[in-house]
Every structure is written in structure tokens, then in C-alpha cells.
Design goal:
7-stranded mixed β-sheet; alpha/beta; two-stranded antiparallel sheet; 2 domains; binds nicotinamide-adenine-dinucleotide; Rossmann fold; 13 helices; single chain; binds zinc ion
């Protein structure tokens, strides 16, 4: 299937399906770029599995350079960014060269930022290999981390195309599948009641997430994300609703240390918390316990890790980009498919965190 991702700055195609890699060469030709060289950036978990299956499709047509980073969040830093630039320069990439990101969100964010900055910006393509990357590959946010903050150095740079070969998901570890699925659940909850109902009826255990159902879930998730991004590419207002579950989620990730919990697992706990806060704020019955049960069935941890200090979490939440003069603002749920950004008082946060 092909979806069109529309943003103010450009519209680009997203191809999704099983067995779509043989189309890569035609997809590149359709971009109408006169590509001189292709730099493929991947990581050391993904490259042994899938690098050859990608290069085989295009190596007779373009000079290919491969660059492999160590897998994991720690590689999304200025050193690996610089190594990528050195690789691009020493191999003679120019303004007509193309970068391909083959991997999860770490590779996508890093390779995308390299593409955004190399000679003031060259085209790039996302070939996501994680479920989470259905989210990170769409929307044009690219970045690396700074020791003082995650994603603090970055740009908006839209890819020329996204190619989602769902067969890649077969080798993804369960923890990473859970991480990506949390974002799909988020997209349904904030935007689309009928997709949410479909998920509830069709995806009851993790083993349901394969083949046509997996593809449908990813397509719906991407379509929701891209509709929201189309309305607000640079995150001035509505794009903030994609942060549902992330105010506490980011705080948990930062407090535990990246790598201790996946992004999606932290966001899932954050969503449950946001649902609780919503029930108290409006007040309205949102069936918190049912959410919790559904999430547990997949194998998610639904409790706040006991080691975490509540006041440190609240301090972290105050550093969230939605916070305003020390007041925490969260994305709250009014009903399935309807969310809004609301100020939340500290005493309510403490009460519910406890
Ligand atoms: P990741 O890229 O680290 O991938 C997770 C792990 O799975 C890695 O160890 C990787 O080597 C491995 N892996 C990847 N594909 C595999 C496959 N098919 N089979 C086996 N193993 C595979 O993590 P992620 O969860 O994909 O992405 C997280 C990153 O995405 C974070 O840095 C986050 O900030 C970023 N992100 C960006 C956006 C955005 O809008 N740009 C949105 C959400 C998240
Ligand atoms: Zn997220």
C-alpha cells in the first residue's frame, strides 16, 4: 500500500507491506533525483540482518557506502554524528547524494539529522525496522542527544520517502514490539475511536500483531500521526497532543536512565497515569481498570517502578516542553478520540502518583 504524507514543506510517499524491498530501485527512480551516491546508515544489530537485502536491490545502479553505528540510544550523540559526516565527506558525497536510514528510531533520528546538516541538507529516505519507527520515521523531526537533554540538537527535515517492510518486524525483540505498540495505542486513543475499537477487538495478545493485522495497525497509526503533523508541522499547537502519556513517560525514562525501560513502556505507564488524572480532572469515568487489564495482557508493566522518587518525577515533569512557568501541562483524555492540553496542579499529581 502507499500512503501520502502531506506537510506544508512537502508531500512524500510511504510504502508499506510485506516483501516490498524489490520495489526499492523503482521507488528511488520515481523520486526524480539524479543521485550520485548513497550512504546507508544502520546499526550493528540491524545491518547483519538486513543490510544485504537492501544493497542487493540497488548496488548495480548506485555507488553504495555503508556506515554502521553501535545499536542503542547512546549512539544518538555528537560523536557518531561527526563520524557520519566524516564518512560522508571522505567518500565524496555531494549535494546530490542520498542518505538511507536503515534501522529503528535511533538510526532514523541520527541519519536524518546528518542528512539535514550535510552541506546544508541533502535528501534522505527512511527504511524503518522497528514498530516504534512507524512514529519516528514520519513527521520530519530529526535529532541527536546532548548530555543535558534528549533530542536537544536537531532539525525538521522531511524524508523523500518512507519504506516500511513489515517483514523486518519478525526479528524484533518482544520488548521492542511492546515499545512500538504503545505508540499505536496512543494514536488510537487520542484521535480515532473506531481504530481504538478495532484494536480492542483484534489485538488482545502480542501474538495478534502480525501479518495483515500488523500492517493495518501500522497504517492507521501512521495515518493518524501524519494527519496531526500535517496540521502543525513545527509543533506550535495541536501536534502537542501526540505527547499523550509522554509527560510522565519522559520523566520515567530520564529518572531510570535510558536503556532501563523502553520509550514505549514508559509512555504506556504515562498514558495510564494521564487517564487517571483525566478521570479526576473532568471528572469522568474512563474505565481506567479496563485499560490496565488490556495493557497487562500484552505483558506491559503497568505500575510505576517502585524505585522512582515521586518528587523527582514531578520536578522532571516541570521541565517538559509543555510546562508553563513551573506549571505542569498534560495531554488529558476527555473521551476516546478527544484530548486536550490542560494545566494540572502539583497536589493532584502527588496524590495520584502515590
Ligand atoms: P532503536 O532504534 O534503538 O531500536 C531498538 C533496538 O532494536 C535496537 O537495539 C536495534 O538495534 C534493534 N532492532 C531494530 N530493528 C530490528 C529488527 N528488525 N530486528 C531485530 N532488532 C532490531 O529504538 P526505537 O525504539 O526504534 O527508537 C527510539 C528512538 O526513536 C529514540 O531515540 C527516540 O527519541 C526516537 N523517536 C523519534 C521520534 C521522532 O519523531 N523523530 C518519535 C519517537 C521516537
Ligand atoms: Zn513517543
Amino acid at each position: 500500500d502507499t500512503l501520502n504524507i502531506k506537510t506544508h514543506s512537502k508531500t512524500y510517499p510511504l510504502y508499506i507491506g510485506s516483501g516490498i524491498l524489490p520495489e526499492l530501485s523503482a521507488i528511488l527512480r520515481n523520486l526524480n533525483l539524479s543521485i550520485t551516491k548513497i550512504l546507508i546508515i544502520s546499526d550493528d544489530q540491524v545491518a547483519p540482518l538486513y543490510m544485504d537485502s537492501v544493497t542487493t536491490q540497488i548496488k548495480s545502479e548506485y555507488p553504495i557506502i555503508e556506515f554502521i553505528i553501535p545499536s542503542g540510544e547512546a549512539s544518538k550523540n555528537i560523536d557518531w554524528f561527526y563520524e557520519c559526516q566524516t564518512c560522508a565527506l571522505s567518500n565524496g558525497l555531494d549535494r546530490s547524494s542520498l542518505i538511507i536510514a536503515l534501522g529503528g528510531g535511533v538510526v532514523g533520528d541520527l541519519a536524518g539529522f546528518v542528512a539535514a546538516t550535510f552541506q546544508r541538507g541533502i535528501p534522505f529516505i527512511q527504511i524503518p525496522t522497528t514498530l516504534l519507527a512507524h512514529d519516528s520515521a514520519v513527521g520530519g523531526k530529526v535529532a541527536i542527544n546532548h548530555p543535558l537533554g534528549k533530542n536537544m540538537i536537531g532539525a525538521f527535515h522531511q524524508p523523500e520517502a518512507v519504506i516500511f517492510n513489515i517483514d523486518f518486524i519478525e526479528t524484533l525483540p518482544k520488548k521492542e514490539l511492546l515499545s512500538g505498540f504503545a505508540e499505536v495505542i496512543k494514536e488510537a486513543i487520542i484521535w480515532d475511536k473506531s481504530f481504538y475499537n478495532w484494536l480492542r477487538n483484534n489485538i488482545t495478545t502480542l501474538s495478534d500483531l502480525k501479518d495483515e493485522k500488523l500492517q493495518y495497525a501500522i497504517e492507521q497509526g501512521i495515518s493518524i500521526k501524519s494527519q496531526i503533523v500535517a496540521m502543525d508541522e513545527k509543533e506550535n499547537d495541536i501536534r502537542a497532543i501526540l505527547n499523550f502519556g509522554h509527560t510522565l513517560g519522559h520523566a520515567i525514562e530520564a529518572e531510570l536512565g535510558y536503556g532501563e525501560i523502553t520509550h514505549g513502556e514508559a509512555v504506556l505507564i504515562g498514558m495510564l497515569f494521564a487517564i487517571k488524572v483525566s478521570e479526576e480532572t473532568y471528572p469522568r469515568h474512563l474505565y481506567y481498570e479496563e485499560f490496565k487489564q488490556w495493557f497487562s495482557n500484552f505483558g506491559y508493566c503497568t505500575d510505576l517502578p517502585a524505585a522512582l522518587d515521586k518528587s523527582r518525577l514531578v520536578q522532571r515533569m516541570k521541565k517538559d516542553k509543555k510546562a508553563n512557568a513551573g506549571t505542569i501541562r498534560m495531554v488529558l483524555l476527555k473521551e476516546i478520540g478527544k484530548v486536550e492540553v490542560q494545566e494540572v496542579r502539583d497536589d493532584l499529581l502527588y496524590k495520584l502518583l502515590n
